[in-house]
Amino acid sequence: MPSLKELRGRITGVKSTRKITNAMKMVAASKLRRAQAQAEEARPYADALKCMMSELSEASRTADPSTLPKLLVGTGKEKIHLLVVLTSDRGLAGGFNANVIRSVRKEVRELLSEGRVVRILPVGKKGADILAREYPDLVVEKVAGTAGRDVGFDKAEYVGQKIISMLEAGEIDCCTLIYNRFVNAMTQVVVQAPLVPWPIAENDNKSEVLSDAPQYEFEPDEETLLAQLLPRNLQVQIFSALLESAAGEQGARMTAMDNASRNASKAIDGLTQKYNRTRQANITNELIEIISGAEAL
Known about the structure:
- The protein is an alpha/beta fold.
- The protein has 2 domains: about 5-25 and about 255-290, ATP synthase, gamma subunit, helix hairpin domain (Helix Hairpins, Orthogonal Bundle), CATH 1.10.287; about 30-250, 3-Layer(aba) Sandwich (Pyruvate Kinase, Chain: A, domain 1).
- The protein contains 7 helices and 4 strands.
- The chain has helices spanning about 5-60, 70-75, 95-115, 125-135, 155-170, 205-210, 220-295; strands spanning about 80-85, 115-125, 175-185, 185-195.
- Keywords: ATP synthesis, Cell membrane, CF(1), Hydrogen ion transport, Ion transport, Membrane, Transport.
- This is ATP synthase gamma chain.
- Pfam families: ATP-synt.
């Protein structure tokens, strides 16, 4: 049975941990409000650009594929597949990073089983460390994340330019973005969004999105617009995913720290009860010894 001194030390240690987790929860909650607002503000622009790309892609279906940008139609092959993985730079966020890594493992297994070559571009220290350890030959470059700071568009520009350069050099044929989409503070959904080739929306889905939208005549021609808009669209979609991931990280961390604080409180209650019982037992034993000694006299 632990002594009273040991129990006091445990209680003090758990209380110190609870202070830290409470502070981290409040910091995450403060950052979450800003990150959530940024992610929600970016969604309409990213979605509108997706609709524009879908309409341009639909209008270009009859064109010669060799004249279309590779970002739209790819290389014509599906041999080399690039996975862009967004994770956080910091831990203590529950299953935020683990869920993304689990999805990446599944996708890698499926692609390798189909005889394809896989390349991985991790964005974020946590994911980069795990993937570099598990797939050292597949990681092409480690890209630092935002480390909890505001997400800058320059990060999306760098990743987008990296994808374009690899595509133009023939190093990849397809590209998929894997990240956590923010739903609320307790829920983040892992999303796999194809980037190359750009997916052409089905007619049914497209009609729902664009049912109230006007039809446009493009000038200059669609191919020229695609060459200019596709790189920008790639960067915008990556930037929107980075914002979603940043909001999801703070939400996951806030929830994880709240659960940790609750568990610490339960541990403190259990240790305090054990401490009181041990102290009461020691006092009872001392009284018995005193009474026994008095009766012996």
